[in-house]
């Protein structure tokens, strides 16, 4: 038996008090987190409605006034004593799983809480101009009734424009349009000295335009973004196809479910949306969607499934029924399809509230779901936070499409996390070499799914408690993440930095390319004002010495070449 096939034998783990606290955490979630979450969702909705009532001129005027406040705040900073610049957003509010440890050290805060308005929906230019705190639920409420949508709409309601640009954003349409940041037309950025610039791919700030994605807000402060809109229809015609076989065979079936041969781009054959869920090492369900009109959806014999109702089965469990009843097709209202994973937070809801998927809970209390991720983080102490880092996995592995079968095999052996989420995305060959970039020479390999201008990648979403933890065995979460990061570096993969990272600085810059990023930090005065992206993502509280070194940093392109 090869090393790859040999099962890992782990000893049993002794339970500690945190295990019991986590086991009964549902009590706090039901009686504290859910009611407050529902109240906050409702108040946010009212705020969005109020914003929508304002005229374009009024919203733009308020925006310009708020930008001036940001500029003034930056001008007040004393570089010798105030620390590095970051937003005033509380650490627990962010949806990501990083600890936001950089805010536990000395820093200089700039309040961006007012930047939560959709400034304009331009149906002629097919552009939505949004401030950074506009979330996906807010934007779809405004655009879908117009039969318009962002080209890439991330699934969870609370994900914001700023987070998806500065960090990472993907959706089932990314095999056509790339990542969320690839759909941005222009950025409005406040640079370190208070200068406000508009960066596009073909103006004098084109280098900054390409450097912003994945930079975690370390080049400047995002004030607004102009994002591509596409025409849509009222329904999504979704086909659920069960697949069976070995882990590698499941990966190949996923590739074949949507990816044409090299260079082929038949819009009639390529679906509008793609995702696959792998439920265990031998079974999965591939889903492909095409936009459909109301007239088509309501034809006799067609099934309409409004998955957004609170009492409906959770989407991932509904999709799993294809394993027993075979392939089927249904029509889902488009906005409900976009947010299909919100109510159950993919399948994390099952761990948070083990009985929340039961029919009685869905009918009685399902309308309170989901709990806000920010409140879940706010109600956990240091011990529980560390427990989740060790006993839980929330990671995304971005890998070339042809390496998906290998990635699935690796996750099955090293983590045993199921379900797994597979979502493809294009990684474009750009005028600049950005932090994430295709494999050199990919276009010469003529692989399935690739085109001469973009390599097809896939997000392998690994979200749940690992098999060893569920069996009560010893599991070293930090070590598993380190091994995952090493595997990604070896296979030209990338790790989105919303997740907990174990990368040291050298390996961070082996995974990502530093060239353009550091060039822009130097050119636009970010060094010594804004944190570096590694400093911001690094796990653990920053010491005063680290803060001082970052403030006095000299520009250098670290570890630009791999060993």
UniProtKB/TrEMBL annotation:
GO BP terms: namely:
steroid metabolic process
According to UniProt, the name of this protein is: Delta(24)-sterol reductase
Q: Does the keyword Transmembrane helix apply?
A: yes
Gene3D superfamilies on file: 3.30.465.10
Question: Pfam families from the xrefs?
Answer: FAD_binding_4
List the source organism. Mikania micrantha (bitter vine)
The protein's matches in SUPFAM superfamilies, at most eight in alphabetical order, are given as: FAD-binding/transporter-associated domain-like
The way this protein sits in the membrane is described as:
Single-pass membrane protein
GO MF, one term, reads: FAD binding
Using the UniProt record, give the first listed, main subcellular location. Answer: membrane
Top-level EC class = oxidoreductase
The membrane-spanning stretches of this chain are 20-47
């Amino acid at each position: 038996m090869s090393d790859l096939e040999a099962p890992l034998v782990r000893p049993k783990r002794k339970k500690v008090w945190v295990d019991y606290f986590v086991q009964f955490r549902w009590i706090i979630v039901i009686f504290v987190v859910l009611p407050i979450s529902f109240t906050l969702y409702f108040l946010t909705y009212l705020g969005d409605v109020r914003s929508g009532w304002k005229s374009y001129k009024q919203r733009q005027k308020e925006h310009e006034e708020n930008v001036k406040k940001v500029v003034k705040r930056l001008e007040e900073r004393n570089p010798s004593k105030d620390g590095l610049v970051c937003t005033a957003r509380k650490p627990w509010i962010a949806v990501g799983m990083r600890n936001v440890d950089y805010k536990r050290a000395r820093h200089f805060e700039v309040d961006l809480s007012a930047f939560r308005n959709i400034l304009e929906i331009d149906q002629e230019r097919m552009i939505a101009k949004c401030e950074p705190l506009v979330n996906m639920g807010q934007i779809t409420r405004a655009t879908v009734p117009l039969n318009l949508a962002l080209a890439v709409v991330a699934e969870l309601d609370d994900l914001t424009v700023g987070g998806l640009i500065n960090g990472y954003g993907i959706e089932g349409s990314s095999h056509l349009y790339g990542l969320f940041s690839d759909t941005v037309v222009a950025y409005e950025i406040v640079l370190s000295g208070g200068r406000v610039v508009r960066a596009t791919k073909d103006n004098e700030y084109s280098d900054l335009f390409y450097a912003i994605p994945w930079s975690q807000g370390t080049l400047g402060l995002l004030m607004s973004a102009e994002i591509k809109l596409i025409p849509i229809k009222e329904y999504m015609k979704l086909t659920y196809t069960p697949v069976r076989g070995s882990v590698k065979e499941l990966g190949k079936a996923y590739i074949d479910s949507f990816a044409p041969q090299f260079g082929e781009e038949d819009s009639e054959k390529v679906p509008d949306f793609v995702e696959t869920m792998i439920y265990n090492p031998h079974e999965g369900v591939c889903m492909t969607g095409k936009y459909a009109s109301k007239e088509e959806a309501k034809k006799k014999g067609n099934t309409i499934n409004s998955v957004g109702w609170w009492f409906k089965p959770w989407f991932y469990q509904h999709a799993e029924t294809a394993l027993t009843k075979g392939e089927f097709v249904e029509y889902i209202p488009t906005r409900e399809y976009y947010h299909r994973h919100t109510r159950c937070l993919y399948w994390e809801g099952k761990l948070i509230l083990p009985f929340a998927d039961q029919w009685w809970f869905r009918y009685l209390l399902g309308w309170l779901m989901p709990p806000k991720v920010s409140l879940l983080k706010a109600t956990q102490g240091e011990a529980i936070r560390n427990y989740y880092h060790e006993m839980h996995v929330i990671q995304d592995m971005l890998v070339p499409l042809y390496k998906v079968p290998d990635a699935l095999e690796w996750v099955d052996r090293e983590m045993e996390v199921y379900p797994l989420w597979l979502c493809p995305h294009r990684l474009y060959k750009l005028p600049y070499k950005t932090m994430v970039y295709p494999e050199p020479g990919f276009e010469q390999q003529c692989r399935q799914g690739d085109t001469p201008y973009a390599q097809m990648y896939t997000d392998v979403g690994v979200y749940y408690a690992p098999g060893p933890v569920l069996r009560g065995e010893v599991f070293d979460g930090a070590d598993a993440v380190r091994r995952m990061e090493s595997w990604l570096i070896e296979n030209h993969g990338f790790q989105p930095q919303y997740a907990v990272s174990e990368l040291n600085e050298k390996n961070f810059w082996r995974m990502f390319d530093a060239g353009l990023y550091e060039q822009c930090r130097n050119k636009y005065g970010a060094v010594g004002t804004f944190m570096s992206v590694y400093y911001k993502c690094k796990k653990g509280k920053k010491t005063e010495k680290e803060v001082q070194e970052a403030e006095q940093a000299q520009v250098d392109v670290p570890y630009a070449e791999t060993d």
